[in-house]
């Protein structure tokens, strides 16, 4: 099978398209013919060597899969060949999804929502699972609460807006002016042009000085340290960002704020919850660009470029017929 191999850590051109042996499913495992995957910030962080202690080389990286079951190992009871499935690969464990085939434990695989294409499904597994774990599993966002979602036009943010609206929250988000209608179309109640106005000032104005109940941080740094200024008393902050540098969170003390940090864990339960939202028409990923498996370096370069203007996710069409 063809796979993109990372022989050494480096820039977007570090990948090499190679022929490797097709994996064989062992007990409890499923062999999936990968139709699509996608690119996340985690993918380029792995590629450039941010996690050298966790990624032995050479490696097949990549974390999203949408595809079709090709074969099952002994003891598998949930799937049969021909099933359409989606899942996030085990992060920092085994091979990833930049390949024509992938094997995974049946415990982390879900049935792909019928209404999503493979490109859409592969764009939702990791970001959707992360958002679900953050908003439902950690901060328990409730009906009628308010939430600020940083980066609402991005791969994670555009999913977070939809999930927060499905829960019944009032959603504030930061985007550029060019993405106002996109964010409103996803369900955002208040959009803030972060290039023209300080988000703390905007939140305090819109909430009569009370602040929001929850802040969902996808950026880190200054965005994380200043978040307490936009929080209500007893507010909660949940961040999905790798915090490499010490953060001064003293302002959170006066708000009796709680902080949560999410490194998502794979399981079928989250996929089934996301699937229910998809089938009710409350959640749909936006695919902003599509690349082939052979051109994965260009996909990495685009996502890693600051202010790239991209909306939603970059999908990778591993099955050539899916390329637009």
From TrEMBL:
UniProt main location, coarse: cytoplasm
SMART domains referenced in this protein's UniProt entry, alphabetically: PKS_ER
GO terms under cellular component: cytoplasm
Localization, UniProt: Cytoplasm
PROSITE patterns: QOR_ZETA_CRYSTAL
Keyword set, alphabetical order: Cytoplasm, NADP, RNA-binding
Domain Enoyl reductase (ER): 10-316
A single MF term (Gene Ontology): zinc ion binding
CDD domains named in the record: MDR6
Subunit structure and binding partners: Homotetramer.
Protein name stated in the entry: NADPH:quinone oxidoreductase
Native species: Halopseudomonas phragmitis
